[in-house]
Design goal:
394 residues, alpha/beta, six-stranded mixed beta sheet, 15 helices, 35% helix
Length: 394
Amino acid sequence: MKEFELKYGCNPNQKPARIFMADGSELPVEILSGRPGYINFLDAFNSWQLVKEIKENTGYAAATSFKHVSPTSAAIGKILPPDLKKACFVDDVEGLDDSPLACAYARARGTDRMSSFGDWIALSDECDETTAKIIAREVSDGIIAPAYSPAALQILKTKRKGAYNIVKIDPNFLPAEIERKQVFGVTFEQGRNQAKIDRDLLKNIVTVNRNLPEDKAVDLIISLITLKYTQSNSVCFAADGQAIGVGAGQQSRIHCTRLAAQKADLWHLRRHEKVLSLRFAEGVGRPEMNNIIDLYLSDAPEEVTGEDVWRKNFAVRPAPFTREEKTAYLKTVKGVSLGSDAFFPFADNIDRAAMSGVEYVAEPGGSIRDDIVIEAANRHNMVMAFTGLRLFHH
């Protein structure tokens, strides 16, 4: 297949639309089901690069959940502890521990479930039956993977009454070193970003504390590769083999940090016993549960726990989760990693990150205020590496 006609471009009024190879060669993808759109393919090709690179640079199977050309999360195939399984709504999945790929997607989808609603999925390895079973019960636009087992493909083809978007990509495809795009009729050209993000990138530790454990280095690698395919400006928090908070597309870096930290905090709070023990009313669906939990953890929980509404949300009215309780719980969080796609210009980013348990940081360095940022990291006893590599993506 040398070209594929799309229903429309980014919006219905943008026609005609297609994907094709400018040199006339075959497309590196095969469409096994559905009719992916313009934005679907933007998500597909960006997300595939992300999981491919995580697999190559960590050795773990990887998955990501994408929405509007940025990842909501990315994760490697580490077994989930019981509380995380429950928080990610996968505690009932048989054989989960036996499938690294299913574990990776369960983590990626479960990180920011509200943002992941209607996601595009990318898998680094052949989609297996267990992974397909998780995907089958979630609201999703489509998936890209290098292969699908017969059982997995059969399951996925039942989604959307057989119209679910399933894309198979040639894992050996390498794009040209020069890439081009047009904006307002003007052609832009640049070298493709082939920067390798691995352990060697973290050698230049600039803080007094230089102790970077291997698992934390993996978390930093995941955060940086995630940023490589996230709309800039962007900051990514990571823990236990997954991105737990992505702050994307903000003009101010402190706003990136605050947004990522807020998402990371919610990820931690979802694992609190008060949340895990919520008893929902009969008939409340999985997407509704996400919204209810989000409001329960907000500063206006009465929207779902108030005297006049709680019965439609819960079988048992939940106990209040006070701001003081949440703050105290978040103060116990430690060992979080943070990556930034460009240097931190002010120490406020470090101070905010510390409030969310960040102890490991990777950023390019190069600011005229690097000394102030390093001083702040030392004050919080953080380990900070200057990578020398900016990761803007647009």
